[in-house]
Amino acid sequence: MNFLRGVMGGPSAGAQPSGTETIQKLCDRVASSTLLDDRRDAVRALKSLSKKYRLEVGFQAMEHLINVLQTDRSDSEIIGYALDTLYNIVSNDLEEEEQEENSQKQADDLGRQFTEIFIKQQENITLLLTFLEEFDFQVRWPGVKLLTSLLKQQGPQVQQIILVSPMGVSRLMDLLADSREVIRNDGVLLLQQLTKSNAAIQKIVAFENAFERLLDIVTDEGNSDGGIVVEDCLLLLQNLLKNNNSNQNFFKEGSYIQRMKPWFEVGDDNSGWSAQKVTNLHLMLQLVRVLVSPTNPPGATSSCQKTMFHCGLLHQLCTILMATGVPADILTETINTVSEVIRGCQINQDYFASVNAPSNPPRPAIVVLLMSMVNERQPFVLRCAVLYCFQCYLYKNQKGQGEIVSTLLPSTIDATGNSVSAGQLLCGGLFSTDSVSNWCAAVALAHALQENATLKEQLLRVQLATSIGNPPVSLLQQCTNILSQGDKIDRRGSKVQTRVGLLMLLCTWLSDCPIAVTHFLHNSANIPFLTGQIAENLGEEEQLVQGLCALLLGICIYYNDNSLENYKKEKLKQLIEKRIGKENFIEKLGFISKHELYSRAAQKPQPSFSSPDHMMFDHEFTKLVKELEGIITKAIYKSSEEDKQEEEVKKSLEQHDNIVTHYKKVIREQDQQLEELKQKVNTLKSQNEQLQTAVTQQMSQIQQHKDQYNLLKVQLEKANIASR
């Protein structure tokens, strides 16, 4: 301070010089003084002024400070002051009382400008990297903070400079091994900024043993019970793994998935979790999801899913799922995580089906989750997560689909009523007075039928008891009854939502299933209802229902087997022409794919809605619409002659297929016969070889016997002669 007072002239020197003048004098001292002590004091004074007079110090002193870094490298104290001053100039971390919107914006602009000046000469970054190799705390720590701030301001440019610097990234990795926690922890923050959106750097960091070091830190800090350091490590791991297939594969091959299992070990008492523990566990769950994301290559996802099953990670997640006292947001994220760990993986889906809740009597986890989905008192995000879990369980899982549908069939329903089944819960949700339950149950049931013609036919057998004294009606009939009643039923939630859900279910059910189409057309009220809905000029909210009605009617035409005289393809098309108009019909059909909520649902499998009112479309259903829209448009415009030709072509193809099938069968039989004959030939060959060997052996023995006989004969003759 005495030095600073001397520069400013002291109290007796008259008027105090301005901050700018003081800074100029200090810069002159740094530039011209031959004594290291003088230069050091001047730099220290600049550091003390750099927060208050950031602009002035930045513009006047930056060049001199960089020069100090180049020329005074032997003195760690002056280097430390210079790095601290540069950090204050570049950093946008204002004091709390200064954090107003305008001042923050100005600070951001200043930080960017000063960063641009500093990195204009790439050698400055290279020089800074050399200081990070110094063990001296007062050099290394400010160096870490300065480089982190530079990356925050101009990330891509600084990343590129570090990338081309010899051993640039490798030098920074050494920070994780520093025994001083403050440097190690700030090193993690530095690597967070360094790895943002740069796949090349992410790969280098990963191959520099980052996974091992970061997982060691997480373990040493107490896993999910650790502090903010664990959070920082998890964020860095996310940077390294998200959308980086190479690193994900490296992580799996390095057996690091197995090291994630202890993260999810929770006790019996889950009350009173700290906010930090919740944050840590949330990030840990997200990290699992990064490895099994539906957007990853299918082979990589499948490999990670199987590893998670074999190492017990899936078991651990299911334990959290069924535990009591787990915070709601963690439970929701755990459900989402389990969903993606089992999605499309048969072994994991089978395991999930076997999980029971710790209740008395035990209930399957699927049933317990479905109970939450159709319970309107549960949080909306939790209900969405359960629906996603159910969808993932059924994804490419015909066995699981069959088990769900079987709980609805008359032969398998529990007559005692002691236990509730998945099918009963879905029917209850489908016909409740809560529109969200209706929608979720309809979509869940549609997923049980996805790409499974056998189950679509089986579901036609389901009968429902509507009220005492009345005969039961089919599930298909009850769906159409509720659809036609529309707003007459008093419901909680969106009026459109229930009808959209039911229409999506019916479209999924009837598509590629002519028998279901015939059952639907048997009810004489269904077609007039659909044509009436499509023909009306309704408000924007109802246009979605009109579009789905048009899709359903189009499915009834395209998948019609012409078995009902009054509802043949041609008659339905004439009805459209007469009551709606073909152009009007196609326009209404186009309402679906043009809807904003349709576009959102098409982006990713997970049902994610900002509010219940936005819950309209299911991801898998958007695929069906995309597939059918063009086909139905063509089918509507086809003439009766073209239809006849198409039918003839279909019949011809069927006949051709039958002939091909017949010949395939003949060829298979001939192949089988040929194979059998080959085996017989081989057997006979083997027997022949054995017999020939036996004959050869017997011939040899006969020859031996002959020789012996001749020898004995000669000996006998000699003996006879001798006796005479």
Automatic annotation (TrEMBL):
Family to which this protein belongs: Belongs to the VDP/USO1/EDE1 family.
Gene3D superfamilies: Leucine-rich Repeat Variant
PROSITE patterns reported for this sequence: ARM_REPEAT
Annotated coiled-coil segments of the chain: 660-722
Organism: Chelydra serpentina (Snapping turtle)
Domain (Vesicle tethering protein Uso1/P115-like head): residue spans on this chain: 348-636
Main location: cytoplasm
Region of interest: Disordered: 1-20
Gene: USO1
Entry GO CC: cytosol; endoplasmic reticulum; ER to Golgi transport vesicle membrane; Golgi membrane; Golgi stack
Cross-referenced SMART domains: ARM
Job description of the protein: General vesicular transport factor required for intercisternal transport in the Golgi stack; it is required for transcytotic fusion and/or subsequent binding of the vesicles to the target membrane. May well act as a vesicular anchor by interacting with the target membrane and holding the vesicular and target membranes in proximity.
Organism lineage: Eukaryota, Metazoa, Chordata, Craniata, Vertebrata
PANTHER family reported for this sequence: GENERAL VESICULAR TRANSPORT FACTOR P115
Renumbered ranges of ARM repeats: 60-93
UniProt subcellular location: Cytoplasm, Cytosol; Golgi apparatus membrane
GO biological process per UniProt: endoplasmic reticulum to Golgi vesicle-mediated transport; Golgi vesicle docking; intracellular protein transport; transcytosis; vesicle fusion with Golgi apparatus
Its membrane topology: Peripheral membrane protein
Protein name, UniProt field: General vesicular transport factor p115
Keyword field: Acetylation, Coiled coil, Cytoplasm, ER-Golgi transport, Golgi apparatus, Membrane, Phosphoprotein, Protein transport, Repeat, Transport
